[in-house]
Amino acid sequence: MAEGVLDKIAAVVADGYLHTAADFTAAGIHSTQLSRAVRAEALVQYARGIYFRSWEDAVEHIDLAAVSLAHPGGVVCLGSAAHLHNVSNEDPSSVWYAVDRARVGRQVTVGPSVPVTTVFWPEAALTPGVEVRTVMGVEIRATDVARTVIDLLRYRGKLGDEPGTKALTDYLRDAHGPINRLWDLADELGCRRTVEPFLRFAEEVREAIPRPTAPGA
Questions:
Q1: Distance from C-alpha of 104 to C-alpha of 82, rounded to nearest angstrom
Q2: For 131, which DSSP code?
Q3: Close Cβ partners of 84 (under 8 Å, ≥ 6 residues apart)
Q4: DSSP string, 135-184
Q5: Predicted local distance difference test score (pLDDT) of residue 208
C-alpha cells in the first residue's frame, strides 16, 4: 500500500478508539484501501464497519462498544448488563441490546464476530435506570445495577429464575443500593406485580445475607 494511505489510516486510529468506516471516508480513505490495510495487518476489523488500530488497544467490553457504535441509542441490558456489573456468573455468548421497537423493526447485527440478541422496548423504557460509560471512545448506554435486577426478574419467563435471583442476591450482598430503588423502578416500568414476590422476600432476608469478606480480614 502507498505510504501516504497508511499514514492517513494511522492518523485516524492513533487515539486507540473504535472507528466506523465513515471516519476513514471522511479522511479520504476508500473502502478498498481499508480492506488492503486489514489484510496487511495494519488495521483490525473487529466487526462489520468497525475498526481499531491493534489488538493491544482492545479492552474488556469491546463487544458492547462495537454494538453501541454501530447502533447508537440502544441500551445494553439483561445478561450483558449483569456481566458488566458483576451480578452474574455467566459471560453471555451474545450482546443483549435493547432498541426502540417503534423505530427499529429488525434484529440488530454487526456481523458474525459479535452476535447480538435484540430486545424490543417501548421508548419510555429506554431511559429509567440507564447509565453511560465510555469504552474505547464509545459511549455505552447500559442499565444500572438496580434496573438490571428488575429486568432479569421481569424476564424470568424467558430467562428462568436463576439470573434474576442471583442478581438480586448480589445486589443485596454487595450493598449496591436500597431496596426502595428497586421498588421505584418496578413502579416506573409497570412491573410491580411481576417482581413483588421477590422484593418482598428480599426485604425479609436481606439482613441474613452474608456480606463479602475483605481480603486479609
A1: 24
A2: E
A3: 61, 64, 76, 142
A4: ETTEEEEEE-HHHHHHHHHHTHHHH-HHHHHHHHHHHHHTT-S-HHHHHH
A5: 63
Query: CA 131, CA 140: separation in Å to the nearest integer?
Result: 8
- By the 8 A CB rule, do 8 and 27 touch? yes
Cα–Cα distance, 172 to 209 (Å, whole number): 7
Distance CA 11, CA 175 (A): 44
Closest CA to 148 of 92, 69, 71: 92
Does residue 173 contact residue 145 with C-beta atoms inside 8 Å?
A: no
H/E element, 20 = strand 19-20
Dist CA 58 CA 78 (whole Å)? 23
Output the CA torsion 144→148→149→151 (10° steps): 140
Ordered per-residue pLDDT tens for the chain, 217 residues: 567 888 899 999 999 999 999 999 999 999 999 999 999 999 999 999 999 999 999 999 999 999 999 999 999 999 999 999 999 988 899 999 999 999 988 899 998 889 999 999 999 999 999 999 999 999 999 999 999 999 999 999 999 999 999 999 999 988 888 899 999 999 999 999 999 999 998 888 776 666 655 555 4
